[in-house]
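ok so i was messing around last nite and threw this chain in just to see what happens. nothing serious, just curious
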Amino acid sequence: MKIVFIGDSITDCGRDRNDEKSLGSGYVKVLSDKLHPLYPDTDLELINKGISGNELGDVLDRLQKDVIDLKPDAVVIMIGINNTLHKYSEGKELDLKKFEQDLISLFDRLKKAGIVAIFLEPFLLPAPDKRRMRKLFEEELKIIDRVAEEHADEFVPYDEMFQGLTESMPYTEYSADGVHPTHRCSRLIANTAIKAIRKHLL
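result:
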């Protein structure tokens, strides 16, 4: 079974672009290390196609080459945080209507290609410099949650879970900057995502 992971820096996590087998050091690697021992007799191929800085539109633009052309059985997608971040860091406007259209298009193209779509919800932790972004991010999350619940084969929520965890522990346990996961956070992402992935293992 072939599974492609696509998204931004949270998926990328330092992978070697010159090595198709490189999974980076984040949740994809953790997930791979957990999956293979569970299915020793299954031919599992995991491919990391995350690219740091990507927004939803970037993933949509490269969906054919980096996902569909590889003919995977499933794709795991985590994308969306940069659509909010880049408004504040680069002054790019977030057109929520276009965002919704692009997300629907993403799922439609995967469905037509017969690829199982597993969507991992992006999250934003309460780092001081990220709190001003929360309102816009929540507007984006409403779209993500609604569209993914309707169109994805599996939808894995994270934002509410991490918000709850950071009520009793410092957010830095999970992310130094509120966006990029610590190893502890990557393990949590992997442990939750693996439940959705295992439903579709052939």
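not much to say yet. The first strand starts at residue 2 and ends at 7.
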